[in-house]
# Entry
Amino acid sequence: MKIVVLVKQVPDSGAERNLRAEDNTVDRASANNVINEMDEYAIEEALRLQEAHGGEVTVLTMGPQRATESIRKALSMGPDGAVHVVDDALSGTDALGTSKVLAKALERLNADVIICGAESTDARGQVLPHMLAERLGVAALTGARKLTVDGSQLTIERQTEEGYEVVTAATPAIVSVWDTINEPRYPSFKGIMAAKKKPVETLSIADLGVDAGEVGWAGAQTTVKEHTKRPPRSAGQKVTDSGEGGVALVDYLSSEKFV
Amino acid sequence: MDMASIVRLLPTPEAHELLELAEELAEKELAPKVDDFEARGEFPREIIRTLGRSGLLGLPYAEEFGGAAQPYEVYLQVLEVLATRWAAVAEAISVHTLACYPLYYHGTAEQKERWLPSMLGGELLGAYCLSEPAGGSDAANLTTKAALTDGQYLINGTKAWITHGGVADFYNVFCRTSGPGASGISCLLAEAGTPGLNPQARERTMGLKSSPVAQIAFDNAPVTADRLIGQEGEGFRIAMGALDSGRLGIAACAVGLAQGALDYATGYARERTQFGKPIIDFQGLSFMLSDAATQIAAARALTLYAARLRDLGRPYSIEAAKAKLFATDMAMKVTTDMVQVLGGAGYVADHPVERYFREAKVLQIVEGTNQIQRLVIARSLAKG
# Structure
């Protein structure tokens, strides 16, 4: 089974993140960049599939040169190799353009299963798996909290707000996963050492047959026109307990779907 | 200066990556869980397995047996990082590493090939049985006996203060195979589950409550003769050699534990205000923090100096004794002072400094009491 995992490098969601004033894009230069958290679950799921069914796992990343760090980190968990699409012309590419580039790379990789995180912590659009499925003409099994493989049949439990749906499709297909699907492993020291020797193929957009005009700022179909800082935290809602405080708390938690 | 801002002198880029891995494990696996496990006194077996899978249970041993071939100066800094968060886990790794020492340095090629890979592989955990109820410091006069008949030793006697007693997968047992004194002692590698190897009830310890310590009663416990490590009569020498290395492990645990206490107390002193300003702005208090930071840095330097001597193949046992003595006395003093920095808050379990304080005490006792360390140092001075 040939498995490709999509990995994106994002600014650490645990630290303060900003958009740049000049072009409204994510400020990646001053941020501590890490693997998108949800992608670690995708890597883990890919490794579990490999352990159960054999085959190989390839990491696919589109991003600037420094994304190499995240690729090595991903490889230290166990995947066999990586493909890194890196090109100056990609700066400013929106989700649609990203899906075009990744689809071209995926065509070359000929995967049975493509696994990615359900969303990235920077954009949170959840659109990429759908766009890729459309471009590649394969099924999209999105938002999985469980994945099982039986021959060429993939079955997921798609997590919903109310519960879950069972969705099946034949390979090749793309599966996006939530953080409820597994518990990602830590890299091992041996894995860190081995990752240095694993093959990482670097591709430009020319290698993929994509024109510079189709991606980057020029090719973007969407633009962020302006942004404002998140307002400071408000005072919140106070409940004065006059015997009914517990009920008010439960009502609130229930309305926010915490319970 | 917290843990993350310590400038570390490491010999290789891979050592930096190993330390990053240790920090990630400490932050994500140890820090969120330590309070719960310590409160319940539960041994974190699965967490130690997780660390084992990451390769942390065989760091200073050769790659051909599944180790990571790291010098002691790197291995000890990994222990230090883990100890800032959870001393019992760091101690577990130190004890396990100690328990692999006899086989690694004194086993035959055949013995090593047979048992070492699984011992270093991360899934198994070891224990080291030297002390007895009647004598810990006076190890040369131990009384647990092993009699060889028909190709197997039968062990009889009781070992005391055994870390991992009841949870270990293998036990190094130092026992008397012939006449009195140091030259009558041998080392046997016994498996858990050996009939007659009976872990007793856990001791009710002051600190390191998640780390099980128990007596092991041996009642005609059979161990086959191929599990004798080294020659008969070499056991005492093996035990003392292992302890030189083990002392460095405890010193590193002490440095990490004290650093954890300092980090916490410093954070508290920056936040806590009295008389309209943060208490760290009062000199009486900030100087306690300064002294702690200085003492920790000195203990770290001494410990790593001893480790570097070891890594160079130079004699290091006196320096290891000094490092263990200094680092653990330092940890006791620093944790006492960090409780003081927090005042009343330092005395309650809502803050971790009282735990660090309780944990520091045992480090002055294990792997040779600090009186024994002074004895070792004094003898070297007397000899000239």
